[in-house]
Amino acid sequence: MATRSIPKLDIFECLPSATEIAQRRVVGRDLDFIQNMIERADALTIQAQNATDYMQLSKVIDNFSKLASRAEEKAQKLKEFADESNPLTDVNNTSELIEKVRLLSQAIEPQISNLKSQFESSVKTQLEELNSSIDYLTSGVNSASSAGDVIALFEPIQETSKEIIKNAKVLNSDPNSGALIEKLNDLSSLYQDKAEIYSDAYMSDAVGQMGSIQQQISQLINNVDSLNSAEAVNSHLTKLEDLSRTITSAAGELNTSSGSENIVININELSILTHSKIANMIDGAKILKKLEPLKEKPDELVRAVKEASLRYEVEVVEEQLMPLVNNYNDLIAKVNELTISFQANGYSEISMGAINKIDRTISRIDVRYKMADSTDPASLSEGINVLVSNAEDKFDSVQSIDPDAQLNLVNSLTSQVNSAAESSDISLFFTNTVSISRDVMMNSRGCVDSAFKDFTREFGNNIESFFDPLLGFLAGFEQLMLVTPWPVFLLVTGALAWIGSRSYKVTIGTSMAFFAIGFLDMWEPMLSTVTMISAATLLCLALGIPLGVWMSQSRRVQALITPVLDIMQTIPSFVYLIPVVMLLGIGKVPGLIAVCIYAMPPIVRLTNLGIRLVDKEAMEAADAFGATYKQRLFSVQIPLALPNIFAGVNQTIMMALAMVVIASMIGVAGLGLPVLQAVQNQYLSLGVLNGLAIVALAIIFDRVSQAFGTRIQKHRSGDVL
Fold first, then answer.
1. 571 and 422, same structural domain?
2. Three-class DSSP category at 258
């Protein structure tokens, strides 16, 4: 069956089309902008012509102001639409917008004159009504003879103040508005004086009411233990519900008094005690109902009583039945007595729903109590002062909408639009930031992604085939490690540690660390990690040392490779995983490549540095003896640079180990995979043990490689063999 090949898209062909698409979108938005401005001006013109109320006309002028501000923000676009070379000028242009704005201005101006008398009459009426309201409230404050009168006047004074603030821009157009604010200030001062007079009496009443409520709560708490019938329970619940309503309704008065928070604490305690008592009564009745059929079976009755004692904490069982479990006759008699008593007192009629309802009501008291606005006259007076201060600030800051001011504003708005359209190119250059269009970036990114997908589809199999030998080497090496008996592995690693360090401590520590890892059942993940680190280190050394030597012999090569190494070391390690996974999928090979990219820079840099730091005198001596280039490199430069090279080896091993742990995210087996699973599933012990194993490997590799580098340095100085 024939299959159609996936179309390929060259990135260089895609980017120009992305720019064109983005440009069309930008042009489309520009066209929408100028059309919307023109349509908005037309709509405002119609609204102005149809306005029958001055406030309607004022809203039109406010929208006109917003349109002018928008035009000023878009001065660059208006300038472009004024250019005859712009193809969009065939559809809409700046001249058309300016003409629409002129028509809008012409429609507003006569309407302002026509509705002027209506506005002045409306302002006069509002002032008279507000003055009348303030006079009435002033009279009411003067005649207030109690704290209740002062509290009752707060809301109407508040509403009047808010009304003045709301209509400030209308009232501000009248020269008598200043007198209104003065009268409002006088009313506020008078209210404050009255509040101070009755505040003490109010607080005294609040303290008395709080004491009465506390007394009622105490009486009900004392009454809880004596509840012994359905009638008593219902009466108690009724009193508790009435008390909760009283507390809620008086919250604004009580929450200003010192110690008022104890009311909420005590009512909650009362609710808890009541709930516990009634639940105990209901549970006791249920248990007795189950015990009654067992009166003829003493052994089962005793067992049932003991079981009830273990399962429930019920007063009837613990205090009256359990003491009699060893006396059958007395136990049966007590069950009969309690059954008759419970039936006579109507325990079966007690509903748990009633107490649950009370619990819900009382649970809300805390929130309502704290959120209730204080009705203390002093607090109310402070609220009035704030409102009056806001009214004064509003009158000072708001712009009047009187006809003369509105005419001047309309003329200025027309000039504002004209100025925006005629702005100079220099001013636009300094006031507008030039940036890459978001559409260009979005389409370009889409092209890059598409081209990369096409590349992976075309060459992905070839790339994977190229790395098949490397995969075979990794699999074979890991299999060899796994089939090696652990005693042999410990002997080999101990021998390598001794050869590298010539230290009994390092050798014994290495063997013990590997043994501990195996003892804690992490042997196979540890071997996978060691395999990956070893392979990555060998690959880094095979590529990095020759590259470092090449850099040391040529300044031009060094200048070319150094920026690449900088990028490799500065890019976050997670980023290395993205391209290798997209090319090769998940597994050992992409993990190894990511590890090598991350771990190679140290060996390259330090090899280059070590060779460049070789003494010039040693090089001159080699030249004097007629050494060739290869003899100078392999017999002089590399031996003298070995300490630096081994420092690079040490850093490469450490960075490879760090990257192997991160590479577990793309399926690389080893100690990093259990750590990742532990983090995802919150397995503390798994994460800690595998983390400690990774630390142990890091210490082993670090100590052995450092010790070997130190021996090389001492050998160079002639201290040791």
1. no
2. coil
Burial of 108 (0-12, 13-18, 19+ CB in 10 A): buried
Instruction: Give, in order, the Cα–Cα distances in Å from 420 to each of 34, 75, 79, 706.
Output: 13, 5, 8, 71
C-alpha 502: how far from chain center: 54
Residue 161 inside a domain? The answer is no
Separation between Cα atoms, residue 108 and residue 102, nearest integer Å: 10
414 and 476 assigned to the same domain: no
Residue 144 lies in a domain: no
> How far from chain centre, in Å, is Cα 114?
56
Are 414 and 500 members of one domain?
no
Domain count, the chain: 2
Q: How far is CA 634 from CA 500, 541, 622, 631, 639, in A?
A: 22, 16, 12, 5, 7
Residue pair 237/355 in contact (Cβ under 8 Å)? The answer is yes
Residue 473 tokens read as 């080497």
Judge if 424 and 488 occupy the same domain. no
CA 226 to chain centre: 54
3-state SS, residue 585: coil
Does residue 645 sit in the same domain as residue 507?
Answer: yes
Neighbour tally for 10: CB within 10 Å:
10
pLDDT along the chain (721 residues), means of 10: 41 49 50 76 88 86 84 71 57 73 86 84 85 88 84 86 84 80 86 82 78 84 84 84 79 67 79 83 83 80 82 80 81 82 80 73 66 74 83 78 83 81 53 46 62 68 72 75 81 82 81 83 82 84 89 86 83 70 71 82 88 83 80 82 83 82 70 74 77 82 75 53 35
Nearest to 187 by CA among 234, 152, 230, 154: 154
Instruction: Give the per-residue pLDDT at 259.
Output: 65
pLDDT of res. 714: 58
Phi-psi region of 393 (alpha: psi -120 to 50; beta: other; left: phi over 0): alpha
Residue 607 sits in the same domain as residue 694: yes
Q: Which two tokens stand for residue 446?
A: 């889409």
Distance of alpha carbon 701 from the chain centroid: 41
Residues 535 and 526: their CA atoms lie apart, in Å, by 14
Q: Is 440 within the bounds of a domain? A: no
Residue span of the structural domain in which 418 resides: 11-114+402-431
Q: Note whether 120 and 169 are within 8 A (CB).
A: no
382-387: list long-range contacts, CB under 8 Å, 24+ apart.
Answer: 383/154, 383/158, 384/154, 384/157, 384/158, 384/161, 384/188, 384/191, 384/192, 385/188, 385/192, 387/158, 387/161, 387/162, 387/165
* Within-domain flag for 24: yes
Examine the domain organization and report whether 568 and 426 are in the same domain.
Answer: no
User: How far apart (Å, rounded) are the C-alpha atoms in residues 403 and 111?
Assistant: 10
State both tokens at 360: 């819900």
How far is Cα 488 from Cα 15, in angstroms, rounded to an integer?
Answer: 60
**Residue 600: predicted pLDDT:** 87
Is the pTM above the cut of 0.85?
A: no
Number of H helices, E strands in the chain: 31, 0
The answer to whether 207 and 157 are in contact (CB under 8 A) is no
One domain for residues 597 and 680: yes
